[in-house]
Amino acid sequence: MMNVLIVTLSVIIVICLILIFLIATYNHFQDYIIRINEADVNIDAVLRKRFDLLNKSIGIIKANIKTEDEILDIIVKLRSKKLNNFELDRSLYDAINEFHTLKEKYPELQDCKEFVKIEINLMESESEIVGLRKYYNDIITDYNKLVKTCPSNIISILKGYKPKDYFDGNNIENEKGTVKL
Known about the structure:
Layout (H helix, E strand, L loop, with lengths): L1 H64 L7 H6 L6 H21 L7 H36 L3 H8 L22
Helix pairs in contact: 1-3, 1-4
């Protein structure tokens, strides 16, 4: 009788330990998912700010250089598109390069206070986006480790969690931006 009680108690303890592990691991995943979503929202806010700055600069540039050429046509095309943050970042990178090319091509733009203000805000947003990319990628690294490593991969299989792409922030050929673990 005593042996049955000890075995039953041992089984209950093991089941409780397994449940505690599963719950703790699930909560760990949820913590990373929340942090990833938070980082994504912050990146989105900075990208939208950059888009708005570039969009605002179109009128300022046209007013100061008196040209009929299409200015920052990348931004004009983006107005009607629904892009994720990865795609938007790459497109804005190209638009910012065009912005700087216009600045070099038309030195009179440096005399316009609004243009200079936009340029300063774009530079400030660049440092913001670099920091946010690093934070996002650090979280993704930890999350992907959880998804891929045992025993936490048991929860990832049960819940259907997949490895997430890194925010590469570069205008590169690898459109996925994934790093194999």
